[in-house]
Design brief:
The protein has 358 residues and is an all-alpha fold. The chain has helices at residues 2-16, 18-29, 33-60, 67-83, 87-101, 106-135, 141-163, 169-183, 191-201, 208-235, 242-256, 267-278, 283-313, 339-342. Helices cover 72% and strands 0% of the residues. The longest helix has 31 residues, at 283-313.
Length: 358
Amino acid sequence: MVLSIVAIVLAVEIALGWDQLAKAWMSLYEANWWWLLASVLAAAASMHSFAQIQRTLLKSAGVHVKQLRSEAAYYAANSLSTTLPGGPVLSATFLLRQQRIWGASTWVASWQLVMAGVLHVAGLALVGLGGAFFLGAKNNPFSLLFTLGGFIALLLLAQAVASRPELIDGIGCRVLSWFNSVRGRPADTGLAKWRETLTQLESVSLGRRDLAVASIWSVLTRVTDVACLGFAAYAAGDHASVAGLIVACAAARAVGTIPLMPGGLLVVEAVLVPGLVSSGMSLPSAISAMLIYRLISWLLIAAIGWVVFFFMFRTEHIPDSDDDAITGPLPLVQHQSDTTETALQGPVPPPERNPENG
């Protein structure tokens, strides 16, 4: 049913905009190959930045991953996320399993996924605010400074909680006690699990330096994404304002997270084209730039990810045990000698008889 509706919508759009699509196709056919190459390199740089966020966060938890392995996992996870129904869930599960294989505990791997998501959203919001500032918010800079200050305060709060989990111990105990009273259970129900979670959180040493590095990589993922779109506009034979590119790219990425279609199909395109037109491009050039950008940042990157997945991860397995992986050096265990070496040889003599009972 859903596919039928999508097919009808596509057919109507193609019929209404056939002339513009024909001009866009000719513009795409005549695209500048050097700008196409620059757009591909920008897309690869964006994926590299995503992988660096993962490495930085895992390193703060004592899990060291090689760069090639981290990037390969992110390419494969991106393919799962952008080409399959329910892709974001499959992608998160895949990354969780990979990080378990690399030596992270289940809790550390989950923490990394959550923190990476927070940094991605924060980076997108920061870049979008920058674009809005250049488009006209510079007339009222206090609103931007207030939002930027809130962003920095949120990051510092996350860093403080990660480095000193005892700060939220009392808050968690009070909330848990109130929740148990509402449910009519003993006040200490779940307290041991809460303390165990905080103990595991202490294994993460997310200092300000690591947080700053991860935040920089997060912003770079968005900057290189905007560069990919800008190079696509140049490849189409036109150009757009930097502020317009930033806002169009940020809006497209934001709506692309809505799980309607894999890869944000139709939704991203519907946002990109008007954004490019409003930034100074003609409609045929905007459609052509959108097609180039989507072919590179979505289809090409997804195709590379599927190749990586089938050659590197398709046959990998994780142990079935639910126990958390042990990180750090393993303790030395003294092996006991075999008892057969010291056992008495031959038949055991009968016990001596007591003469009094004789």
